[in-house]
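Continuing the batch. This is chain 6 of the set; chains 1 through 5 are on the previous pages. Same settings as before, nothing changed between runs. Recording input and output for traceability.
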Amino acid sequence: MANGTTSGITVAPSSPSNSTITPAQPSFIESLIDKIPLPRWALIAIVIAVGLVLLLLLICIIKCCCCRKKRKKKAKIDMTSINGSSTIKSLVQPDLEDIECGNEEEKRGRLQYSLEYDFRSQEMKVGVKQAADLKAMDSGGTSDPYVIVYLTSDTRKKYETKVYRKTLNPVFNESFVFHIPQGDVAENTLVMQVYDFNRFSKHDIIGEMRLPLGDVDLQHVMEQWHELTAASKIEQEHLGEICISLRYIPSTGKLTVVILEAKKLKRMDPNGLSDPYVKVQLILNKKKWKKKKTSVKKNTLSPYFNEAFIFDVPFHLIQNIDLVISIWDADKMTKDDQIGKLFLGCRATGNQLRHWSDMLANARRPVAQWHTLQPVEDIDKTLGLKTRFKLPLPGS
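Output for chain 6:
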């Protein structure tokens, strides 16, 4: 028909702009998701989980950075700029709330002992009776305890009990005898140390008890229990004292050392005495140089020497000199033992440095002073001696 209708349906004329329809292209992410063989809800769950992990990592990193900054700020605190003891106390001492109950003194057990002194023979009998409630040192909840007994006047003479296996309540019933003059009793301390025996490693100390004999009434036999405490890290042992005189003449380079006397020396022989003599040694630039020694004084702890030694030391070397004084116990059958040692010089400290300075400040005048002997190992470590050599000096 002319009007363009067919079977009652009217066909609208097509517009030129809508003649061609182009489908929308999918994005890269959508195409990537379509390739993953997982349902959409699973992918969303994975993304959320990854996001939470990254968030936790970020929080941890921020927290670590903040902690480091706080530590740096604490380290930069200058104690010299702090005013008031209360401020210092607050920096050093924690609050009571921060102190845990576990910091209390740890129980190590108890030890029963007996003590008897014979004034005629001047011997002290020490009995190690038993121990109770010892601290367990082994993985099985037990220990292998034994006891070491000694006096502080002679730490080399030590007695040991038998070892008792796998028990925290051993019964020892052993006694030991010490020879100790009545006049020296008050200056001594009785030490009993309980150890745990280990076959393939170092023995562990469970605890110890220290009994100052000056506080004990030795007129009667005593027997009692004593709580064990933590062992002392350093054994305070009195080695003795020595009096020496020094004189130096700068014009002639003569150094005169006079060994006058010593007192309260450590006992080295079984009879409770020693056979002391003194070695005088010069150290130049940390190397052994010259040495001399006194005569031996038999069976005494308070020897009197009054022996002088003269060394040639040029004035330009006097500040590089260390004067080492050591007291030895002479033995006929075995090697001589050192009792104690000290050194004077510009590298010294305390009374030794003061004595050396007084000598230099008072040229040509003898200066005498008492000094306390120190452990040999400590002095040798401080001196740091090098290999021995002979120094060629004119007129030496």
